[in-house]
Amino acid sequence: MKRIVLVVLLFIGFNSAIAQDRFIDPVDIESIESKVNSFISFMTEEELDFLIDYSNHNSAMAEFWDNDSFNPYGYNPLKKPFKLTFADTVYTSPILINKVITSRYGWRNRRPHKGIDIDLVTGDTVRSLLDGKVRYVKYHSGHGKTVVVRHSNGLELVYAHLSEQLVKPNDLVRKGDIIGKGGVTGNARGSHLHLETIYKGNHINPEYIFDFGKNNNIRSSTIWVSDKWMTPYLHSSKRQSTIDIATSLEEANAVKANTLRTHIIRKGDSLYGIARKYGVTVAALCKANKIKSTKILKPGQRLIIGL
Ligand SMILES: [Zn+2]
């Protein structure tokens, strides 16, 4: 079936060239159209939806398409907030067992942890959360054996530390299709799935998009992503940030940074003591406030804690 979808996609590409009135005789257009229609008539409604979804979004799908580079966009800061849309309301769990989150997106051991860790046993099957197209299947430093799948809205999901990769670049996958087996390759202590959500080269906290509870909900069909959901040091890898989805530009602008927790320094406070009180690290406090750990705190100053 995948081959037929590909053929039809090619025809659609061909058709859009025709629509721009290039190089093809009108008689040929009719014959090509009738061939496309006969292909389409073989497809189930579900397959047709899949195809239409792809052709509607194909600029996001085609942009910087590269099977060799983990991040083909390079350094690509986006204007924020920006909108992500989802045709589905639920995703398929990447694993068959209950999801146990062992580490979250956020500041961890003085470094950003740009994904979420889901516990599994080496050899457990790993499935695609959504319909998509496999962009990258390689060993990537730190990530180990990695599969990256791009979805029709441009979002990419990274599946890392796999023991086996069971898809090829440019394969179309449906949600729930097996893409590999979990493992411990790369920089991983103990077997788990490290899952990242990346939009045009920019990491987003996966929990802002997906609810990793047992209902596998996508948090909203429209999600506005602002800076705070992309900045690791505003989150702790040890606990879930309070999640309040912005579903419109107005909401996204309203919450821009005003949900940040702050602490007003009192006499006798130390960075270490404040970090402990709020369950964050001194390194995260320093990053969030753009200060050094040796900074002398003055009573009355306001420190940003995080979300
Ligand atoms: Zn991880």
Topology:
Blueprint: H1 2-19, H2 26-42, H3 45-56, H4 58-62, E1 82-85, E2 101-103, E3 106-108, E4 111-113, E5 116-119, E6 125-127, E7 132-140, E8 144-150, E9 155-162, E10 164-165, E11 172-173, E12 178-181, E13 192-199, E14 202-204, H5 206-209, E15 222-225, H6 249-254, E16 261-264, H7 271-278, H8 282-289, E17 302-306
Antiparallel strand pairs: 1-15, 2-5, 3-4, 5-13, 6-12, 7-8, 7-11, 8-9, 9-13, 10-12, 13-14, 16-17
Helix pairs in contact: 1-2, 1-3
The protein binds zinc ion (ZN).
From the structure above, extract its key features.
307 residues; alpha+beta; Glucose Permease (Domain IIA); Membrane-bound Lytic Murein Transglycosylase D, Chain A; 3 domains; 3-stranded antiparallel sheet; 8 helices; 17 strands; 25% helix; binds zinc ion
Backbone CA Rg: 23 Å
**For the report, how would you describe the main beta sheet?**
8 strands, antiparallel
In total, the number of domains comes to 3
Kindly identify the CATH topology of the largest domain.
Glucose Permease (Domain IIA)
Strand content: 15-25%
Bound molecules: zinc ion
| Beta strands, count | 17
- Distance from first to last alpha carbon: 46 Å
- Architecture of the largest domain in CATH? Distorted Sandwich
The helix/strand series, from N terminus to C terminus, equals HHHHEEEEEEEEEEEEEEHEHEHHE
Low-pLDDT segments, ≥5 res: 14-23
- The level of helicity is 25-40%
Please state the overall shape, judged from the principal axes of the Cα atoms: elongated
Structural class given helices, strands, pairing? alpha+beta
Q: Return the average pLDDT rounded to an integer.
A: 86
CATH level 1 name of the largest domain: Mainly Beta
CATH homologous superfamily placement of the largest domain? Glucose Permease (Domain IIA)
Tally of helical runs: 8
